[in-house]
Specification:
about 5% strand; two-stranded antiparallel ribbon; 4-stranded mixed beta sheet; about 525 residues
Length: about 525
Amino acid sequence: MAVAMVTTAVEQTPTIDEPVYVGTAVVYQQQHSLRYNPEHPPLGKLIIATGLAFADVRLDPAFAGDQTELGRRLLYESGNDPWRLMLLARSPVIVLTLLFGLVVFAFARDLVGSVGGLAALALYAFSPDIIAHGSLATLDVPAAGFLLTSVWLLWRARRRPPLYVPLAGAALGAAVATKMSALAAVPVLLLLVVVSVRYARRKQDVGTGARGRARLLASGVASAALVALIAVIVVWAAYLVVDPRLRWATPGHVPVAHGLRGLAVDWLPFPEPYRDGMRIQFGFEDKVWDGFLFGRHYRGSLWYYLPAALLVKTPLGMLALWAAGAVAIVGVPRLRPAAPYVLVPTAVLLASGLYGSRDLGVRYAVFVPMFLAVAAAGVVVARWRRAHVVTAALVLFVAVSSLRTYPYYLPYSNEAFGGPSKTHLRLHDSNVDWGQDLGRLADRLRQRYPGEKIWLVYKGSGVPSSYGIDASNPRKVPPDEVHGLLVVSDSSIAKASGRLAALIESSKPIDEVGHSITIYRRA
């Protein structure tokens, strides 16, 4: 897994979100300012900043552009090496992703023993989605991993609450301090605190009858309050690390939250920049976004988008083991107590994602392969015929499917949907084409098409000229002037209309790069 992620990190150019996070991390380091990227809390970007500490990063302190311009200025206009900077920024996330693999192993081992732990770890380590997003300087994998860690610690709190309950609170705080979407899991985890503490104390002398039950409940509620308090402290600490004086002025573009949203924002005990970030996120949810699923471009969102995308982008053997593991956890008596810990947080987070407005990728559900890898370990203790043999065969199938897509993990889809070369026919954006292959495109054009006229429609945050690509925009000239090579990002093809659609229809596809960019020939 480490080899796959490092290789991916070395070969890929910045994806759409990364320059914003990297630029913000540098501003955190050098200027101790919270003004950029308030829609996400600071912790994930502070983690990214630990890698950048090994570079002499240059950024004009007088720069006053927006966060998109910040990323471009840092990577391409300040004398920094974008390849080295991105590798350093991605490295802490890679390390963290590997550590979360150990959490998966430990959690599954606690449930079913070492054999199940190894099976869960194998599913995690070969997951194309975790490899793809764990090798990027983004926030999705860290947030999901911190949530998984918190749940695992709560499972262990069933035996030693004084040790593991505070640690679970710190991990929950880390998740909430990384991405605000983790807030959806907070009520579930607080209930799990009560469940764990009640289990731990029910064998102690807490009295009998109503009084004993009241003492159990009070102990559980007090522990849940402690977890919540620690989580809040972690969130505040993340902001204070950036700016101990917590200087903040609400930007003019922050929308007003109304109704229950407004009450939640006003009452949460978080710093003002966090609450303004929530308002921005609610504003994003109120927008109408473009989507693309199974060849259909649409406006708005589909409630079944994430399950459908997961069906396409998850190895078939993994899907089978997830389903069997979920059945085992519910059906095997010794595993049933784990169901609220493994399955309920997954279901709640997924249900929260179903009604989001942004159908932009399975990265919004990257917690699913983490939690369900643990669930899949339950198969090894199920009294099913040849369970161990079938489990080993399915894990091997997953490994082969994952290795075959190397090093193109972002556009992975399973064999039932044609593999990574066909993903762009069914999905778009971070499922397949997130701007990651600009460097590979430069190499391909230099090696196979030297000296040819290039017309480029690129969806991404990279600057083509910085990679040696001299290209023109075909949408700014009459169609009859577009001759030579027409190079189009697959996400742009998925949403093409008008002039671009006509250009594509009248061109001949001759090559592709990284399963995310198509090269056409125009006579």
